[in-house]
Design brief:
23 helices; Beta-Lactamase; about 775 residues; five-stranded antiparallel β-sheet; 6 domains; 27 strands
């Protein structure tokens, strides 16, 4: 087949065009391949940047499908990727239902109204805080209804923000507390600005300068401290700022109108590595402190003066172990010179000096001993030890560390006490020997009832082994074992009770016991000052025999006395019969039955009648005395006007007193009243006492004799006193007091009868007589009905 040239040309042109088109397609493919590789690299780079970004992009499409990376699942605590919006919430992970609904509403708002939003979400299973920024997605990202979410992990930021808020709140609270504290401070405080002008003062500052308010202080620039030595408050603040540290000074300041010592402190305030922002200051009242310091100095001086007067040696060392003070006994005992105290010589060097002077004990290893004594300063407790010096001196040394790190050293010379202790031991041995050789049986019981001490006579008396007593048995066990030695074994409980009373009740008791062999003992338990009880047993066998003999003799004497009393009573009655006849015939003669009597005869009759009266009274006295001794004296109880009775006794005795030249004085109170008693015997009692007083006073004092009858009464009774200034009769008073009621003297029988009559009326009588001074009889009679 033959082709035309035109066809061949067309075919060649088509082939050329096809070739060139193939070359262009190959070149275009190569270019597109390169472009695709570049875009893929850019896409991978952008994906890496997105992954490295703190923000996570999430696309929510209109059908609620989600396009997001795997980081979204990790942030929400979900397993695997998230492809649907509802997968953002889980049972115990992801968002909770409330958070999911909130996010859904925000996305709907962005879809419908194109409103951007920002939310903060907290997943359930994660401690993260996720901030969501949402807005409609660009058209290049998605179609209509797509929303682009940018998620950021704000956990650390929120924590930091919370920390910063907490720190801010704490700082504000601290600032408010500090401001309140400064405002409530009881001492003045202030703050100066950078120009050193007052910018802030507290209430105490306002009160101190007596200003109306803090604003008035600041506006007026009222300073608390006056210039002292040319330095004012501003100059002191400038010095503190220049020094860069707090400056303190103690100056007098007027506080509320009163001059007081204040410690003023200026403190420059500046942030770290920053310029100063001002100067703060405060003033503390140290008036009491300064006063106390002065008082402390005076107390220390007084204490040192007191220590100088003590017999014990006392030295004080400071925290540097230097000697601060040593009293006079310490200086004498350790031979300390005044220069050593003045220079504060260290304790270790003092020990060396004392060793050279022989004032330390001899020890084998002195360096070790010295180091241990220097260690006293570091001990938390006191140390006490005995030092025996070379010259025989015994010292008791006490080292007491002081709170400031010093040491108080006290040395007591006990040489004399040691010597006395030796003498005491000797005395104890002597006492023991004396104790064992006493005639009495002696034992000492402790407060718990145990036998403490005993002598050999006690052991031999009870026939007890030394070993049994050495076991110190209790008193109950001891007496139970010794009861068979007694004639009456039950008396052992009596001794036990006496010992118990002495040890526990601290009362002294005693008694008597009889042994089975016939011996008699007096015993007594005596409380001792140390709480023990001393039991003493005395053999009274011989005394008991003598007592029996004396008792028999006394019974014989009592029988003889009864015979005598009966004889006196009978004789009194026998004598009264002829005396009555004599008195009767005398009355008849005086009445003139035998005719008119001459003057001498009348005098004889009067003498007879006086003698009859005296003898009658004597017989009554003897009869009453005999009845009193026999206990048969009968007293008639009637109302007796004592004042009238005493007045009649004075009247009856006045003529006798005048005849004897004796002044008879009566002092009878109006309050004497009446008592219940025997009027006749009381009248005879008083008459006998007054008669005796006149009779015994007259011979000694012919001129200046005086007898006083004094009486007064109260609700309880009547007191009668008969006194004279005669020669006294102490022998007769002593005889009546001792019971020797003999009829050898009228004074004796009068006092004896008077005592019996007073006793019969329930009263008491006291007789006081001194030779050459007179006699006083004091009678107390009760107001018995």
């Amino acid at each position: 087949m033959t082709s035309s040239p035109g066809a061949l040309f067309a075919l060649g042109l088509f082939a050329a065009l096809w070739f060139f088109a193939g070359l262009w397609a190959v070149g275009r493919g190569i270019a597109m391949q390169r472009r695709s590789a570049f875009v893929a690299a850019q896409t991978e780079r952008l994906a890496s940047l997105v992954d490295a970004s703190p923000y996570l992009p999430v696309v929510v499409r209109a059908d609620w499908r989600i396009e997001a990376g795997e980081r979204l699942g990790r942030w929400l605590g979900l397993e695997g990727g998230v492809r649907n919006f509802d997968e953002l919430a889980g049972a115990d992970c992801g968002l909770d239902r409330a958070g999911l609904d909130t996010l859904r509403q925000a996305i709907l708002g962005a879809q419908r109204g194109a409103r951007p939003f920002t939310l903060s979400l907290r997943p359930q299973a994660s401690g993260r805080t996720i901030v969501v920024h949402g807005a409609p997605a660009p058209q290049a990202v998605g179609g209509p209804g797509c929303v682009l979410l940018w998620l950021s992990d704000a956990t650390e930021g929120q924590q930091a923000l919370a920390d910063m808020r907490r720190e801010r709140d704490e700082a504000l609270g601290a600032f408010e507390a500090l401001s309140g504290l400064i405002e409530a401070a009881p001492f003045p405080m202030w703050f100066r600005d950078t120009e050193l002008r007052l910018a802030l003062v507290n209430d105490a500052y306002v009160r101190a300068v007596e200003a109306a308010s803090a604003d008035a202080v600041i506006d007026g620039g009222i300073e608390l401290c006056e210039p002292v030595a040319g330095i004012g408050a501003i100059e002191a603040a400038e010095a503190a700022r220049a020094a860069g540290s707090a400056q303190m000074r103690t100056i007098p300041v007027t506080i509320e109108g009163e001059r007081r010592m204040m410690r003023v402190v200026d403190v420059p305030l500046a942030p770290q590595d920053g310029p100063p922002i001002g100067v703060a200051g405060y003033a503390i009242d140290v008036q009491e402190l300064e006063s106390e310091r002065g008082a402390h100095r005076r107390f220390a001086d007084t204490q040192r003066e007191l220590l100088d007067r003590l017999s014990a040696a006392v030295a004080q060392f400071g925290p540097d172990q230097g000697l601060l003070f040593a009293n006079q006994p310490f200086r004498r005992l350790f031979e300390v010179e005044a220069e050593e105290v003045a220079e504060g010589k260290p304790f270790a060097r003092l020990l060396d000096a004392w060793r050279d002077r022989g004032r330390t004990p001899e020890v084998r290893d002195y360096p070790q001993w010295r180091e241990a004594r220097v260690g006293w300063f570091a001990l938390p407790y006191a140390s006490e030890e005995e030092w025996l010096l070379r010259d025989g001196t015994h010292l008791r040394v006490v080292a007491q560390p002081t709170p400031d790190g010093g040491l108080l050293l006290i040395a007591e010379d006990r040489t004399e006490q040691v010597q006395l202790a030796g003498a005491r031991d000797t005395l104890l041995r002597v006492r023991t020997a004396t104790f064992d050789n006493l005639f009495e049986a002696v034992a000492v019981f402790a407060p718990d009832g145990r036998l403490h001490l005993w002598n050999q006579r006690f052991r031999r008396l009870w026939v007890v082994d030394e070993g049994a007593l050495a076991a110190h048995p209790r008193v109950d066990a001891l007496m139970a074992g010794l009861a068979d030695r007694l004639a009456r074994p039950d008396q052992a409980s009596l001794m036990q009770e006496v010992i118990r009373a002495a040890t526990l009740e601290r009362t002294q008791r005693g008694g008597q016991i009889r042994f089975a062999d016939g011996r008699h003992f007096d015993f007594a338990a005596i409380p001792l000052p140390d709480g023990n009880a001393l039991l003493i047993m005395l053999d009274i066998t011989d005394s008991r025999k003598i007592e029996v003999a004396l008792r028999e003799r006394n019974e014989a004497l009592e029988a003889a006395d009864k015979v005598k009393t009966a004889f006196l009573s009978r004789m009194s009655y026998e004598l009264r019969t002829p005396l009555t006849s004599i008195g009767g015939f005398g009355e008849m003669l005086r009445a003139g039955y035998a005719g008119k009597l001459s003057e001498p005869q009348s005098q004889y009759v009067e003498a007879i009648m006086d003698s009859v009266g005296v003898l009658s009274r004597q017989i009554d006295n003897v009869l009453d005395l005999a009845q009193g001794e026999a206990g048969t004296l009968a007293i008639e109880r009637v109302a007796v006007d004592v004042r009238t009775l005493l007045a009649e006794a004075l009247d009856d005795a006045r003529s006798f007193a005048e005849a004897e030249g004796i002044e008879l004085v009566g002092d009878l109170a109006e309050t004497i009243g009446t008592i219940g008693g025997d009027a006749s015997r009381l009248a005879r009692l008083v008459a006998g006492l007054v008669d005796n007083a006149i009779r015994y006073t007259a011979p000694a004092r012919r001129h200046g004799g005086r007898v006083l009858l004094h009486a007064w009464g109260d609700a309880k009774g009547v007191e009668i006193i008969v006194s004279d200034n005669g020669p006294g009769m102490p022998d007769a008073v002593a005889a009546v007091t001792e019971g020797q009621q003999t009829a050898t003297t009228s004074g004796g029988i009068g006092l004896a009868l008077a005592r019996q009559l007073v006793a019969a009326h329930g009263g008491s009588m006291e007789v006081v007589s001194e030779r050459g001074q007179g006699t006083m009889v004091r009678i107390l009679l009760p107001r018995a009905e």
